[in-house]
Amino acid sequence: MRDPMSARFRLLGFLPLIFFLAQVAHYGRFGGLGNLAWMCNIGNLLLAIGLFLNHKELIRATAIWTIPGLGIWFWFVWLEGSTSLSSTLAHVGGIIVGMIVLRRVRMDRIAWLYAFVWYLFMQMVSRRITSPDLNVNVALRIQTGWENTFSSFWKFWLVMTVLVAVALWAIGLVLSWIWPAASIKVEETP
After folding, report:
1. What predicted TM-score, i.e. pTM, was given to this entire model?
2. Per residue in 106-126, is it b (16+ CB within 10 Å) or e — as a string?
3. C-beta separation of 175 from 64 below 8 A
4. Is residue 145 exposed (0-12), middle (13-18) or buried (19+ Cβ within 10 Å)?
5. What is the pLDDT of residue 7?
6. Which of 81, 85, 93, 101 is most buried (most C-beta within 10 Å)?
7. What is the mean pLDDT of the chain?
8. Which residues fall within 8 angstroms of residue 41, CB to CB, at 6 or more apart?
9. Phi, psi values for residue 107, rounded to 5°
């Protein structure tokens, strides 16, 4: 049974929802709605849903993804100077809300597995609904700069998927050390 979060705490879900809607407005205005399928953007939407529904596994999985999401965004977008206010809100705001929420929800040791399954699902979604030009979630072609290292996309994808799994496991482990989920104690009756 889930411990109910207070209604006031669950209202934090409006923040990642606002971050997601800001991205919708941005990509609607400047084109490229397929960019909404990036893990970071969908992550804000799912974090909001997880908070509204008190779904701890969803909250944990999305909170885990805010960490690599921020790093990837910083490296490939912010350092290039091609960021927008909505993108900054989605990444910086998303990780802030995610970490605040984890203090209350806590992290269990299998949350990384939910985050990994979500990644695999989004890979399939990205392949089916997004433009190859966008290469959303690096699901359609080798990341620029790695073409000489990998002879085929599927080799690149396999290596990347293994690295993602290991990174998510490590992030989940560290977060479970910082905010461990309470263990359930069973009392024995005489």
Report:
1. 0.90
2. bbbeebbbbbbebbeebbeeb
3. yes
4. exposed
5. 84
6. 101
7. 92
8. 20, 23, 35, 90
9. -125, 130
